[in-house]
Amino acid sequence: MNDAKTEILRVRMTPMEKAALSRQANDQHKTMSEYIRSIAKCPPEVTRDEFDGSILQMIYEINKIGVNINQIAKKYNEHNYVEPRADLLEKLDEVYGMMKSTIRLMKGA
Questions:
Q1: In a 3-state reduction of DSSP, which class is residue 9?
Q2: What is the mean predicted confidence (pLDDT) over 43-55?
Q3: What is the span of the domain harbouring residue 25?
């Protein structure tokens, strides 16, 4: 689908910024318009600090899940339940699957 490009965008920049943008466009064998459109479509890159922050947040969340599981186990043991309820086992399986997926993602980083 090739939409007609009817809108014009004017941007102010320094001569150095324009030269850098022009070089980047040329490096990718694109016109400046094509290059600007292509980078406008891309999601922003994640910085290492943002990535590390996300990992720390995931670790924190996994730790909270572990604490909740320990509290459930303690209640189970206090009341001498013989057999765990099916819905609890299902939820534990979901949590275990999420934790495995998260750990796999973290190892791939």
A1: coil
A2: 79
A3: 11-42
pLDDT of residue 109: 54
For residue 4, tell me if it sits in a domain: no
Query: Residues 20, 62: one domain?
Result: no
Q: Which of 97, 77, 92, 19 is nearest to 105 (CA)?
A: 97
Whether 75 and 98 map to the same domain: the answer is yes
Nearest partner of 35 among 47, 46, 43, 23, judged by Cα: 23
Residue 24 predicted with pLDDT over 70:
yes
In a domain, 3, yes or no: no
pTM for this prediction: 0.41
